[in-house]
């Protein structure tokens, strides 16, 4: 895997965030170049986000990887190795997994008795609608999908859904010295947030339940001595399937005087844990020394675009920690087992 580590250092050095389209393209071109010639490459673009599908549009299996990352400090884009750990933005989420998938595809695609495809996208961190979502809408499908998000070689067959919501309220402005002459829109929003957090409190430990993150609260005020006449709260909601109707209930929960606006919505992801492909993937993980057990993910991933079409899609990736944080790393000791497990899984499908 040393050659792959060198490529990972180069890929991590590309600041492929949503606001840097040239770097998104550079990251994509680097991985496509590593796959090499001899494969059909179909290029897509939607919302300014490029993506590719290497291989046929309706393969037996799709290996899916995203090359975009969340923003970080400049130092995080200079990968550093400490023993068996490789630190850097995207090391774990999920540039190293993408490189392993590219290597597996390059090696196996010409040899397998069924069609295999590699799907590379650049917008997963901002919703996935212009990458995997766009490709699926354009007719790309598969019998089974493996998404290389981090899982320490466990198999994720279920993920929460996502809602990005804005709560807005309007009031009446007044001089802050005479608040009774106005109506403070910010207090209305704060009460709505309080009601929501009372309904969905922040868990003290990991639990499979709906959570609400208050990402931002703002008003149009530019001075201290003004009663705000408008206010907005941004919410990131990760919901379990039993709360699939939550958006319809948000207005009632938030209370009077609050409008609810949906900015983005992604359904929960689910794959049949008893299907043959999931069992074979678990066995492949076990064969390289990992337990391959099933895992639920609290974060949303691009598998939801496939599961919405009735296609089983799972997350299966290497080990590491700290994704989206200042000390993100991939555990290099898991890359060879990850490579071998993917290889073993894809070969095992030929038996049936």
Q: In a nutshell, what does this entry contain?
A:
The protein is α+β, with helices and mostly antiparallel strands and 352 residues long. The protein has helices at 2-12, 21-35, 91-108, 132-137, 185-199, 246-254, 276-287, 303-307, 335-348; strands at residues 41-46, 49-54, 61-66, 80-82, 85-87, 116-121, 144-147, 155-159, 161-170, 211-219, 230-239, 259-266, 269-270, 294-297, 312-315, 320-321, 329-331. It starts with a helix and ends with a helix.
Structure notes:
With 352 residues, the protein is α+β, with helices and mostly antiparallel strands. It has 2 domains: 2-160 and 268-351, Zn peptidases (Aminopeptidase), CATH 3.40.630; 164-266, Alpha-Beta Plaits (2-Layer Sandwich), CATH 3.30.70. The protein is 30% helix and 26% strand. The chain has a 6-stranded mixed beta sheet with strand order 1-2-6-3-7-15. The radius of gyration is 22 Å and the shape is elongated. The relative contact order is 0.18. The mean pLDDT is 96.
Stretches where pLDDT is under 50 for at least 5 consecutive residues are none
Mean of pLDDT: 96
Tell me the span between the first and last alpha carbons.
30 Å
Derived from helix and strand composition plus strand pairing, the structural class reads alpha+beta
CATH arch. level architecture of the largest domain: 3-Layer(aba) Sandwich
Q: Mind sketching the topology for me?
A:
Blueprint: H1 2-12, H2 21-35, E1 41-46, E2 49-54, E3 61-66, E4 80-82, E5 85-87, H3 91-108, E6 116-121, H4 132-137, E7 144-147, E8 155-159, E9 161-170, H5 185-199, E10 211-219, E11 230-239, H6 246-254, E12 259-266, E13 269-270, H7 276-287, E14 294-297, H8 303-307, E15 312-315, E16 320-321, E17 329-331, H9 335-348
Parallel strand pairs: 3-6, 3-7, 7-15, 8-14
Antiparallel strand pairs: 1-2, 2-6, 4-5, 5-17, 8-13, 9-11, 9-12, 10-11, 16-17
